[in-house]
Write the structure tokens for this entry.
Amino acid sequence: MTAGFVARNARIVTALMLRELLTRYGRRGLGFAWLIGEPLLFCLGVIALWSVARPAYEHGIRMGPFVMTGYMCLLLLRHQITLSLSALQANVGLLHHRGIAVLHLYIARNILEFLGATAAFVVVYGVLMALGQVSWPADLLLLYGGWFLLALMSMGLAMVLAALAIRYEVMERIVPLFTYILIPLSGVFIMAAWVPAAYRDAFLLIPLPHVVEMVRAGVFGEFVETYFDPIYALGWAGVFNIAGLLLLVGARERVDAE
């Protein structure tokens, strides 16, 4: 019974992902390639700009891989939040089909963004390796753990913000501002070791820097000083997801009533 339940829901989510690909990217031109190409071009562009404007090394860390690890984390976070905002409103008609639930819509969009960002990460990493900017990851397990934890935390945060946007119209204007505020708070362009010791503990109360630091520790290894607590990050990811699920209760009725 459990296997059948999982299989049925997996089929629904897969079908929604394929539908999302078709409606967002179409069948012509680059089509599905944009799922990977869009974050890839953004990341390579930012790396190129930083490489010109900043020295090759900062605090003993090569600028290319530092920007790559931070910006890919930022892209995944922002894309999951942004595309979750309209997930229900854009697909509310699908809920009239038997078996499709509100949660399916959010899971489908978040998995799609995760797959696209992950593929772009792999490609960018391969390009930097070919250019001699970065070596093979020092700890693949730590890199995978940080990346998956980031995706889980981002999905929970995305559902919380999406649910609030359904309840309060003003949130649609606040969320874009919130995502910009997250840039300095998430640690994507700064490492915890660079924060003055007097403020580091306060900075690490924010859960996002922990997962970004895990990704960087997985790439750079023990020769680069990092600070993170996987249990703390996992706990916050759980809080965000549970809060998001609770806030989404009754979301369909709210959208139908508008």
Observations:
- The chain has a mean pLDDT of 84.
- The beta strands are 57-58, 61-62.
